[in-house]
Design goal:
The chain is α+β, with helices and mostly antiparallel strands. The protein is built from 16 helices and 25 strands. The chain has a 10-stranded mixed sheet, sandwiched between helices. Strands 15, 16, 17, 19, 22, 24 and 25 form a 7-stranded antiparallel sheet that branches. Strand 11 and strand 12 form a beta hairpin.
Length: 642
């Protein structure tokens, strides 16, 4: 550095003339305290050393992997590896660029070697990406799947990562949950603990469909971004969101018209997986190959499956994954954790409330404490985590329950029968009767009042009065309950229906109705402006069914107009207590838009190819007679004093 002599003299003169004034100048304002987020980012940056590597698979493809080693790791202080495999990028890329977080705060403080991998064909990894790549039970030579990629990755990590203790855990939420499940199959000897969280179990059922009905808003919104082609490895992590041009998803998808317009108006054939959806409208070999459940075998690691009762994307996945692992891997430690959370809510929020439901306390803490103890036990030789067989949250009563099985033992099967005048009872109907409504594809029933182009995160606890007041929604409810009623396990709809059309959807919703005057409501609460939840109709569970699949998901068939037909389908598990004074309500309708695409109500080989003229109004009837008793089959958990 150099100074011009004249400039230096001028500076000295200024200093001598203004010294006293400078001494009295006010101090610079204090720097604001660091936010908790900034403190976490600083902790990660100062306590971990980042490495970026390319790990070769058995077929020669190299997968980009980052890992973060605690700075105090040494030959005397070794750490286990905690791996997440993801299609969503392990960025930021570059040895000097760190993410703001690596895990939950307690995990960062406890200390693990955190490893992250771009799966085959995503971001910086080589190879071809395949959505929910089919599992190969037998692999010859250089044949690969997600299980083999995981095995090869773990083998490299335990041999090459500095100062690891030879033990590996895996976890991930949603798509990474699928990779966790797949990685547990034919486990590498170093894999000691896995936690598939909201895992995809069967790609036809998770995310994409509900009993054959397309999850339109999710599939369109997700693949419009995620489905864009990646011709070569890239470190560009900028997700360029689809421009809906409006926050009103209902209107956007109504204006879209028939599904055949998606390519013509928006995708231009560039979204490969949308093209797969169109090509495979039924549960054919394409979808059956993407069912991981029958392959969840030879798992040696301890397992903790995690899910949310209000997960609109992957509720089927954790329930079925837990059941399949339990059945096909006798003797291993396998537990289920289900809380009152939306997709990934156990990692991203305190879980105190969701939409129109208030759970009364931060529910996520129970999971976060338990999962840390689980990994410490199996990866670090920590104390017994005392993990129960099932830790499940009981809605309505708003409490955690530790159970020795899921569904719980001792439940009693019962049926809630639909009756005339909107009644709902445990007694079968006697006099023949039916209820009817007009279903109009031009005015479908909305699934939520939220205005958002993306799918709603809170509709699964939303007040349903907006729906029950529509003429195309049938509503049945019990009298106020004289005592608490707890439903635990799967539900099953048994509907006797007829339609003037040749195809139809049936949506069944289980609803908890508050008394008109909520116990404990005070004058002060009223005056404070707090929301009065009297008579609120809180959604507990909802499930659509595409009627063409009533006999087979692979071979659809039309309805015969006006012929009474039985439609029967399973609804995902619940664990909910309807408190005394509340009513149990069931709503039945034939659209749930745009969460579910519109059924044209004219049978066509593929709804993706339906024409505007195929969308017709139809009169639907729900029959409730002694010979045709429409009902909701439930499992009742008796109270302790029964």
């Amino acid at each position: 550095m150099s100074f011009h002599p004249r400039g230096l003299l001028a500076a000295l003169a200024l200093f001598s003339l203004s010294g006293p004034a400078l001494a009295q100048a006010p101090a610079a304002p204090p720097r604001p305290p660091a936010s908790p987020e900034d403190e976490r980012a600083a902790y990660v940056r100062s306590h971990f050393t980042k490495y970026e590597v390319r790990i070769p698979m058995r077929d020669g493809v190299k997968l980009f992997t980052t890992f973060y080693v605690p700075n105090d790791a040494s030959p005397q202080k070794r750490y286990p590896v905690l791996l997440t495999r993801t299609p969503y990028s392990v960025g930021p890329y570059g040895a000097g660029r760190y993410p703001k977080t690596l895990s939950l705060p307690a995990f960062e403080k406890e200390g693990f070697i955190f490893a992250f991998q771009d799966v085959r064909g995503r971001y910086m990894s080589e190879g071809e990406f395949v959505n929910v790549r089919p599992h190969r039970d037998t692999k010859r030579g250089k044949e690969v799947d997600e299980s083999s990629d995981t095995y090869d990755t773990l083998d490299w990590l335990v041999k090459r990562v500095p100062h690891n203790n030879g033990k590996v855990g895996m976890w991930g939420v949603s798509y990474p949950g699928f990779y966790t499940s797949a990685g547990a199959i034919d486990s590498h000897p170093a894999l000691k603990a896995v936690s598939p969280q909201a895992p995809i179990a069967d790609w036809f059922w998770d995310d994409m469909h509900r009993h054959g009905a397309l999850n339109l808003q999710l599939a369109f919104s997700f693949f419009s971004i995620f489905g864009k082609p990646r011709p070569a490895p890239t470190d560009d992590t900028d997700w360029k969101s689809f421009d809906f041009g409006t926050p009103d998803a209902y209107q956007f998808f109504l204006d879209l018209g028939p599904l055949s317009n998606a390519n013509a108006k928006h995708f231009q054939g560039d979204i490969a997986f949308w093209n797969d959806l169109v090509a495979h409208p039924n549960y054919d070999a394409f979808w059956q190959a993407r069912n991981l459940l029958p392959h969840l075998r030879n798992i040696k690691a301890a397992v903790m499956v995690v899910g949310g009762w209000y997960d609109t994307e992957d509720l089927y996945g954790p329930l079925r994954t837990y059941a399949a692992i339990e059945k096909q891997n006798p003797g291993i430690a396998n537990t289920l954790v289900m809380g009152p959370w939306p997709h990934g809510g156990w990692m991203r929020s305190e879980g105190t409330s969701l939409g129109d439901a208030d759970f009364g306390f931060p529910t996520a803490a129970a999971y976060q404490d338990l999962v840390l103890a689980f990994f410490k036990q199996h990866l670090k030789g920590g104390p017994d985590a005392a993990v129960p067989e099932a830790l499940v949250f009981e809605g309505g009563a708003n409490r955690w329950r530790k159970l020795d099985a899921w569904p719980p033992r001792g439940t009693k099967e019962a049926r809630l029968y639909f009756q005339p005048q909107g009644a709902l009872t445990f007694q079968a109907p006697k006099a023949p009767s039916f209820d009817e409504y007009v279903s109009d594809p031009a005015k479908p029933v909305p699934y939520t009042q939220d205005l958002s182009p993306g799918w709603s995160k809170t509709y699964m606890t939303e007040d349903q009065r907006f729906a029950s007041r529509r003429p195309d929604v049938l509503t049945y409810q019990t009298e106020p309950l004289p005592q608490d009623l707890t439903l635990a396990g799967p539900l099953e709809a048994e509907l006797w229906v007829s339609t003037t059309g040749t195809d139809a959807d049936w949506v069944v919703k289980l609803v908890d109705v508050n008394p008109g005057k909520v116990p404990g409501w005070t004058k002060e609460q009223e005056q404070s402006g707090e929301r009065n939840r009297g008579a609120q109709q809180t959604l507990v569970r909802g499930e659509p069914f595409r009627g063409r699949f009533r006999d087979s998901y692979s071979q659809p068939k039309p309805f015969t107009p006006n012929e009474v037909t039985k439609v029967r389908f399973v609804i995902n598990d619940v664990f909910h207590t309807f408190q005394r004074g509340h009513r149990l309500m069931v709503q039945v309708q034939s659209s749930w838009f745009p969460f579910i695409d519109r059924n044209p109500q004219t049978f066509v080989p593929s709804i993706y190819e339906a024409k505007p003229t195929d969308f017709v109004r139809a009169m639907h009837r729900l029959h409730h007679t002694a010979a045709q008793p429409s009902a909701l089959k439930v499992n009742v958990l008796p109270a302790l004093d029964e």
